[in-house]
Specification:
The chain is mainly beta. It has one domain. The two termini are 27 Å apart.
């Protein structure tokens, strides 16, 4: 809460009672609030599920077509978080099996729409060698021509048509019609008693939402193009904020 003109122009010292009055007036009129109180650190946790259960490495799940599969790797980039006027332009690499989280500075008891992007902006795909979460050593980069992998899911399925029965979805592409970065919007209300938000990633919607595809027909996608866009169109349906 802001108060204007609580302290007027320079004044001369008065008697002790007048001075005490001014001190008390200042204390009530202009409370000192640090930025730490106004904006609290909010921790966003990501909870991957499938078939209503937490996703665990190599456990068996079933998609909407009755195809069974397991997940050995699940990683993705999130960027440009914002709510209201608060914007965090950072890029975060989330590993589902490493309990990664995102820490943001958000207003206390904020409400509105939480915006963020799944993927990496095109400018970073064309900016030469990167470091940190964008380091190619993280295994989320193809080449300077094709750019970053925005979403990676690997595992196994008896329904896969590959020789080793693997599934491999490396979804990327940043240029023109091959762009796979997607904007996510989630209704948001920061609870009064906690600064933790839990966002669910539902893999049931990975296979069938805005678009649909079967493991038997499409077990591997490892380059930008039409098939990558089919998967990317389902990204927005993956995310929802868990009630607390």
């Amino acid at each position: 809460m802001r108060y204007k003109n609580c302290i007027g122009k320079k004044f001369q010292p008065m008697n002790k009672y007048a001075t005490l009055y001014i001190v008390l007036l200042f204390a009530f009129c202009c409370p000192v609030q640090s930025q730490e109180i106004i904006d609290k650190k909010t921790v966003i946790h990501f909870v991957p599920i499938a078939n209503g259960k937490p996703v665990q490495p190599d456990s068996i799940y079933q998609n909407a077509f009755g195809e069974t599969y397991s997940v050995s790797k699940l990683k993705y980039y999130l960027s440009n978080f914002s709510i209201g006027s608060k914007v965090d332009a950072g890029i975060y690499l989330i590993d589902a099996f490493a309990a990664d989280s995102v820490i943001l500075q958000l207003p206390l008891n904020a409400k509105g729409i939480l915006h963020f992007q799944l993927g990496v902006d095109s400018i970073y795909n064309c900016s030469g060698a990167q470091s940190g979460v964008l380091d190619p050593l993280n295994g989320m980069f193809w080449t300077w021509n094709t750019g970053y992998i925005n979403f990676k899911l690997e595992g196994y399925s008896a329904f896969s048509s590959t020789n080793i029965k693997n599934i491999e979805y490396h979804i990327g592409g940043y240029a023109g019609e091959n762009k796979t970065m997607r904007k996510i919007q989630l209704p948001y209300s920061l609870p009064k008693k906690t600064q933790d938000i839990y966002i669910q990633i539902n893999l049931d919607n990975f296979w069938k939402s805005s678009s649909a595809f079967k493991i038997a027909e499409l077990p591997v996608i490892t380059s930008p193009g039409k098939n990558a866009k089919i998967v990317a169109d389902n990204f927005s349906a993956l995310f929802s904020i868990l009630p607390q």
